Fold each of these.
Amino acid sequence: MKISKKIYLTTFVNLGLIAVIGMFAIFSFNQISTKFKFTIIADKLNASFLEMRLLEKNYFLYNDKGGLLEIQQKARETSVTLNKMRGDIVKAVGRDKFLQMQKLLQDYSKMVALGIKNNKKDAWTKKEIRLVGQKLKSYSENVTALERQHVWEIITKTSMVMRHSLWIIMIFAFFFSLFIVRSIRQPLHRIVALTKTISKGNFQKIKAKPPANEMGAVIIAINSMAEELSKREKAIVQSRRLASIGVLVAGVAHELNNPLNNIAIIAQTYSEVYDKLDKEQHIGFMAQVEEQVERLQKIIKNLLDFSKPKEPKLAEKDLNEVFMHSLELVQNVMTVANVQTRLQLADTLPTIYIDEHQFQQVLVNMMINATQAMSSGGELIVKTGYIKDKDAVEISITDTGNGIAPEFLDHIFDPFFSTKEDSGTGLGLWVSYGIVKTHKGRIKVKSTIGQGTTFTIIMPTSKKYKEEANEQV
């Protein structure tokens, strides 16, 4: 469901609940209003009935026929009022109670009329008038009291329902809103987590199926962006690898020249003494040529392996061995640049979980940068060791060049940042940083102007790498 629909749904549900409470309140108010209106009418009727009873009492006490006439007149007026208010009374107490009250008033009027007509003062007439009058007054008072009780019950019930409804709506609105917020927040957290990993150079995609809403569209877009960035990163890594090859070629050319010269000398000597050689000597000359060819093949194979793009393949590797293979690639570059190497490699290091091809590129790039920093020659110091408290392996590459200015150190791993005025692209260290971060490692740099620079790569051991990977799963 789209976020806009969720917001609309939340709004409509809350408005619906408010409308239900509002309608109940209006219904209760109308009931109270109807009952209250009846009590006003009933008070007037009861006052009339009371007045008739007082006149009735005067008639019985003083035998005043005029008292009956006044009762008759009052009964007519009350009957008119009763009929006039018929609708309100029926609505409040019902048709049966209205008819019963009307019948009692008519009976009372008939008895009074009979008393006037016959002018009887016997006990039966007095008793009937008194009895019917008492019934009329009692019935009216009982109905009025009952309706007042109903009003109070409605008020009490409405108050209770309103309180309970308020709590129910608040609880429902809270949990419903919480559900909506969570359904929006969870994809947002996934997007934030993904963007953080992308910012660190890890271009992984969200594997879960994206929801069919705006968040899903954003996730699809970010996944597409991550895939495109991953492709671009691979292209940049390959371009940096090819750029490194350009630097390596100078050293490789020097290294190729030696076996080629040897082959030329062997061939020249072989041609001059060919007729004087026996079979074993012929084989010996060919063995020397084969040895030099194998040397050439090894040089070319190393160069091709380094330049060829490969899919990342993680495996447990020995850091010292990976470094020595990398050193073979740049050894001649350093020889041409008059750079000496001093190795301080620790024995029996724990293995690290890496893609050897990518990590070799990092080391080659570091050593080429160090060699280029020592334009007049110098010494390259390489140390490896185990950090027990961090369960990690480190390698430091130190040059004796001019060093890096302090204001540049914070930007040394930024893309396109370079301290080389003409030849630098500013991508080498950035690519190296990304490769190391992808392998859950980190790079530190320390430099002193006039003394040199040290790059330190810290990598988790294979054991720690796998433990952290399992924890994330």
Amino acid sequence: MTAFLLLKSLTAFLRQAVDEYTAAQGQGGEFRKPEVFEWNLPFKNARQAEKIDFPYIVARIINGEDQQQKPDSLLFSSVKIDLYFGIYQDSVNDQDPEAFVHPDGAYDLLNLMEYVRQALFEEVIIDNKFTVEYPYSWEIPDEQPYPLWVGLAHTTWSVQTVTRQNYEGVDLHGW
């Protein structure tokens, strides 16, 4: 349940963080704010199969881990969430369609990824419950599906773990 709540809180935070970010280009060259999704991009609408879903950010839980704790220490677990970024940048020169096209969408992608990284580490704790931790790593793959540009960030979060309930005289596990 905690990982579920973290994913919901993170996507709400990201929606708010990019609410005024419009440097990502959408279809047709217009600038628009990135849409934020959980787990995956939504399925295509068959009636609008050509519609471009860019720019976007997708948050996906990868795994979680409970560390063995020392007695009387605070109990925390970690959850790893990957953030997938996508932008659309066709790099077409409208003044001279025959001109050399420089695939510069990586700059727009990098700007969006850096904007989100800064927003996360300026806030650090979201919903007074979930803490983003180091290391934070990101990557932009060499091969890109031009004119679409994609990147990935790996995040680690500290979340409160389950607290053991020990009842004296009650055998909870049959031991």
Amino acid sequence: MITMQKSISITITTFLLCASFTFGQTVSPLTYSVDNTVKSDKKIQFSANAPSGAWNFIWDFNNGQHTSTAENPTVSSDEIGNSAFEVKLTYSLNGERVSTTANIDIEKVSKTILHPNKADVIEASADLLDFANLPNVFTPNGDSSNDFYIVEVTEPTEISFKVFSRSGMLVYEKVAGLIHWDGKTYYGQDLPDGIYYYVIKDTKGLYNPATGFFYIYR
């Protein structure tokens, strides 16, 4: 069973934001700092805080509006906007691709800082989906035991469930309040044994997406 944290702890210190969550392995927090002395075209420094051995960094700012392959890139607000946007960081570690996201509102952060050049600490939270059931392995072999991958959230909400192969190919997708999947593709073919990755989102956008992996053994 994979245990998901219900909320993300976010700390902002002198324009620094940290956000982290766990899915199978610990994902290091994203951080950023905003130079508020420049009223137009703010310079924003992002830091991956990735574990030792991480490589192949890909930053995605505001749904592809700006991208970077640097470990700790600097971008300007002219490139990604002066208001709220999403940042996604993906990198390679121990043969797997790891990703994490943070939702950032530059204007709110800038207005919150009371003493420029000094440490003002603000705490906030961002909810994650809370799962009543989210397996990390299932065995769809027809023996009536653990034949289905069942995803159930504690709050009554409709979710989007996507399954990807290790190569990144989408092999299954379902939108429902309760996921009850038999391990087959869209075309009714059995997926082979191995590792697969999921992305789970609520359709109303009230929670941060949940990502992780599971095993199929037949």
